[in-house]
């Protein structure tokens, strides 16, 4: 039985694309997390599965040679419909999966547990899942551990996304020969066309960087002192 499509599917797929992770090379951090998941749950197979539009693709895998399967066969396509782990003790006794090619054929799935990979915006990108070829159950502590490992997978994905965004921003900066013209009074920058712009506007246009504002400790101390002096 194919899983239904989530109501936020378009936004979920867009979020997945932003990580630029599909079809990427193996990475040690993800490989180690699936290995730990197998050890924790005592299963021969574990995967970081990302659910794409028409497939599930494995960013990391332990105990399985396949790199992807059709989405309409994916247990993980069912798991992303909720924000809690999906546990299937015996797929042959579950109406959703008993006729699934991955159950009646290779790899012969009987047990499945998948914790959704929920990004900061709440989109389920896929799962960290463990699989066995025989029916079984997990203790509550094992399920909790699987959820904690799933959060670490998302942390790895977020680190990957931020690194890629920074690299893109740096690549977008134009190479400046000599000195950057800057106003000695208001600190505006002059662009290549001779227009004076704020630092924020300059960086946004040159590198696509959005700025946020805060106050450094030195300025905070000076402003606090100025306010205190004015009140005296």
Which stretches are poorly predicted, pLDDT < 50 over at least 5 residues? none
Q: Strands across the major sheet, in which order?
A: 3-2-1-6-5-4
The CATH H-level homologous superfamily of the largest domain: GAF domain
One letter per element, helices H and strands E, the order comes to: HHEEEHEHEEHEEHH
Secondary structural class: alpha+beta
Helical content (DSSP H or I, runs of 4+): 25-40%
Q: State the major sheet.
A: 6 strands, antiparallel
Number of strands: 8
Residues in β-strands, percent: 15-25%
Which outline best applies? elongated
Number of domains: 2
Reported CATH architecture of the largest domain: 2-Layer Sandwich
Radius of gyration: 25 Å
CATH C-level class of the largest domain: Alpha Beta
Mean pLDDT value:
87
CATH topology of the largest domain: Beta-Lactamase
Terminal CA distance: 75 Å
